[in-house]
Amino acid sequence: MSPTFAQLGVPHHIGRALASRGITEPFEIQAAVLADALAGHDICGRAPTGSGKTLAFGIPIVANVGRAQPHKPRALVLAPTRELAEQIMTEIRSFAGAVRTAVVYGGVGYDAQLRSLRKGVDVLVACPGRLEDLIDRREVSLSAVDRVVIDEADRMADMGFIPAVRRLLDQTGPNPQTMLFSATLDGDVASLTRDYQHRPVRYEIGEETPDVVAADHLFWNVSSTERTEVAA
Ligand code: ADP
Ligand code: MG
What we know:
It is a single chain. With 232 residues, the protein is of the alpha/beta class. The chain has a single domain, classed as Rossmann fold. The protein is built from ten helices and seven strands. The chain has helices at 12-19, 28-38, 53-64, 82-93, 111-119, 128-136, 153-158, 162-169, 187-196, 227-231, and strands spanning 43-46, 75-78, 101-104, 123-126, 147-150, 177-182, 201-204. The chain has a seven-stranded parallel sheet, with helices on both faces. α5 links the parallel β3 (101-104) and β4. α2 (28-38) packs parallel to α3 (53-64). It binds adenosine-5'-diphosphate and magnesium ion. Magnesium ion binds next to α3.
C-alpha cells in the first residue's frame, strides 16, 4: 500500500486543501519524491506526462518557502511555456494558503506582473525569457531564492532555453535546493544536473520515452531465405 500524504510529511493544512479537491492518495512519483524533497534534498526526476510531477515539487516548495521582500522571490519554478506556467500556478494556488504566488511570462502586458512583484511574491513561476527581461528592468532579483524547480527540462533544451536557465541559476542565493524534472535525463539535461545539482536523489518512473525521431529506418526487400543473413 502506498503511504498517505501525511505519512510522507505533508503538512496537514496542505493535505486538507488537496483533499477538498479529491486528491487523497499520492501518485507514484509523489510517494517517491515527497519525503526527500520536503527534507530539502536535491531531486532529479524522470516520469511521464500526467504522472503528477507538479504536486511532487509544488508541495515541498509551498511547505518550506520563506516570506519574500518586494522584488525578491524566495522560490522559483521555471517552465518552458506560458501554458505550462499557468497550469503549475493554478495547481500550486489550490493549496498555497497564505503563501503568495505569481506567474510571469512573455506575450502579455507587464502591469499585473509588476504589481504582484512590488508587493512581494514568495513562489514565482516563470518562463525564462520574461524573467530575464524583468531582471534587466530591476523588477526581480533572484538573490533570495533558495529553492528552484526546473520543470520539463528536456523541453527547455528543445526550445533553446538552456543558456537562459543557466544564467538564471547563476543568480540565485548560494546552494539552493534544486528539483529538476524531465522526460529524458541525457544531453543538456544531464549537464544541468552535473553543474547545478548537489548529490541529487534520482527517481526514474515508467519507460524512457523512445526517441523515434533519432531512429533510422532502413528497408530491404529480400527473400525469406536471405532474411536472417541480411538483417545480421
Ligand atoms: P505531470 O506534470 O507529471 O505531467 P501533473 O502534475 O500536471 O502531471 O498532474 C496531472 C493531473 O493529475 C493534474 O490534473 C493533477 O491535478 C492530477 N493529480 C496529481 N496528483 C494527483 C493525486 N495524487 N491524486 C489525484 N489526482 C492527482
Ligand atoms: Mg508537468
